[in-house]
């Protein structure tokens, strides 16, 4: 039997089980309270218990003074409910709420999801967690001041590891390392969270989410966050690749409609070979989304992939489908500018005969 927790001033609520912390319960249900270490040390999760009873055990006693405890303050990363609660805490729902930090991370696992896609899971120090919004990215810090940015593929409440999807770029400094010499327990440094591409949870509008290749990573995070929040808005998710191997987590995405009553998932291939016997949609992924949604005037659109794909989607969604410009959110996987020392990308974009990869001045050809 859980306890009901009400958060002020937002008036959001969630259920907390007796043996889980208030922070863990909130994150599990998609509500982002502030935190840092999750170990009762940094004090970032400090908030006030307005009514009800909590217990800290021994954790956090050095951070909270006796006067703090007498005034009702608690560390929500340690405190556990012992009754229904009314608490006072700010919520992390915008970029201004989250500090950008530099942290070490250890490679926990490397999974070859496709011949040219590696899923890396990074473990942060036990005393640290990276707070972020679903859809943001981190910079991997390399030598000589270089950096490579990769979208975080897990939702904020799934923060035991940071999941990155890395596509191999021939000649790339970092991606070459990932696919050749990187091994479990290697140490990396990262800085984040970064980026303004994130789920706008306060909007009531239905969502159109379009991913190309490894642009699936932040879309995955956004979908998982929406499911965790119990967001009931309609979501139409389109994932495009050249051939079936490019949809490297297809089975996972196909499970989403069973987890969300108003979610539709549509995979799209632009160059499926005959021997794959593909019976799904063909063509450019953003055009498949347009065919199903000719009027986007009441929607939000989240688009992630190569620069050409993002540019084509923006132009077509706004001019042909009447999407309001302020409701178009995108993450374009551009190239890093390392004085041409390497051809890694800022995000792991697809560069093998991408059907979108034509000169920008010829984008109109995509519609003919």
From TrEMBL:
Pfam families with a match to the protein in the record: FAD_binding_6 (PF00970), Fer2 (PF00111), NAD_binding_1 (PF00175)
Ranges of residues in domain 2Fe-2S ferredoxin-type: 3-93
Keyword terms of this UniProt record: 2Fe-2S, Iron, Iron-sulfur, Metal-binding, Oxidoreductase
PROSITE patterns: 2FE2S_FER_1, 2FE2S_FER_2, FAD_FR
Catalytic activity, EC: 1.17.1.-
FAD-binding FR-type domain ranges (all copies): 100-200
Gene3D superfamilies: 3.10.20.30, Nucleotide-binding domain of ferredoxin-NADP reductase (FNR) module, Translation factors
CDD domains (UniProt xref): fer2, flavin_oxioreductase
Enzyme kind, highest EC tier: oxidoreductase
A molecular-function term among this protein's GO annotations: 2 iron, 2 sulfur cluster binding
Cofactor section: [2Fe-2S] cluster; FAD
Domain of life: Bacteria
Protein name, entry field: CDP-6-deoxy-L-threo-D-glycero-4-hexulose-3-dehydrase reductase
Organism: Accumulibacter regalis
Organism ancestry: Bacteria, Pseudomonadati, Pseudomonadota, Betaproteobacteria, Candidatus Accumulibacter
